[in-house]
Amino acid sequence: MSLARFDDAAPARAPWLITLADLSLLLVGFFVFLHASRIDDAALAQAIRAGFDAPSAEPAAAAPIALDRAIVRGFAAGSADTPSLAAAIRWARGAGDPRTRITIAGHVDGTATDVDPLTGSAALLASDRARAVAAALVASGAVARDRIVLSADPAPAGRHVTLSIGFAGNRQDAAGHRPPLALSNPRSLP
């Protein structure tokens, strides 16, 4: 048995030789594959929500940029009764820009006595302190209800409430309420 007859059929070109056209087609195919396998995360999430009949996700509002802070001190241990709020009310009145939000965060000192007397919860007491200060600010007319964001921090930080004013709007929100600074065409004056 001889293998000589199979040796006669030599390939027309060397198998390792790849032309520029072959490489170009391979590169185009690679980029087509990359483009086809690209996933849009937002579209994928929306498709999954639609598959489960879930409501469309609204984009989360960015947290306001903190511009100024005030602190209400003087809370008794285990109590949400507000101390004098005259300084906090003056501070809140100074923040009259409708593009701002006031975040009111209640805090506790972390001791066993600084908890809600009925439930024993530090988080609930911190929330009650923030709510009491917010109610006093709204009742005094210093700030509108829709501009207040409540927060509670049950981590030990002291018996106080922190108020922070943050910019939550944009320049265009109030642009329609101001007169123009200059005319676009000064020669059009009568």
Structure, explained:
With 190 residues, the chain is α+β, with helices and mostly antiparallel strands. The protein folds into 2 domains: 18-60, no CATH class; 65-171, OmpA-like domain (60s Ribosomal Protein L30, Chain: A), CATH 3.30.1330.60. Helices cover 34% and strands 18% of the residues. The protein has 6 helices and 4 strands; from the N terminus they run H-H-H-E-H-E-H-E-E-H. Strands 1-4-2-3 form a 4-stranded mixed β-sheet. Strand 2 (100-108), helix 5 (122-140) and strand 3 (148-156) form a beta-alpha-beta unit. It starts with a helix and ends in a 15-residue tail after the last helix. The relative contact order is 0.16. The model is unreliable at 174-190 (pLDDT under 50).
Could you name the key traits of this structure?
single chain, alpha+beta, 60s Ribosomal Protein L30, Chain: A, 2 domains, four-stranded mixed sheet, disordered C terminus
What's the layout of helices and strands?
Blueprint: H1 4-7, H2 20-36, H3 41-51, E1 65-73, H4 86-93, E2 100-108, H5 122-140, E3 148-156, E4 160-167, H6 171-175
Parallel strand pairs: 2-3
Antiparallel strand pairs: 1-4, 2-4
Transmembrane segments: 14-34
Keywords: Cell projection, Cilium, Flagellum, Membrane, Transmembrane, Transmembrane helix
Protein name: Flagellar motor protein MotB
Average pLDDT rating = 79
Give the N-to-C terminal Cα separation: 111 Å
Total strand segments: 4
By CATH, the topology of the largest domain is 60s Ribosomal Protein L30, Chain: A
Assess the beta-strand content as a share of residues: 15-25%
Helix tally equals 6
Order of helices and strands: HHHEHEHEEH
Largest pleated sheet? 4 strands, mixed
Overall 3D shape = elongated
Q: Helix proportion of residues, in percent?
A: 25-40%
Strand order of the largest sheet: 1-4-2-3
The CATH class assignment of the largest domain is Alpha Beta
Which structural class do the helices and strands define?
alpha+beta
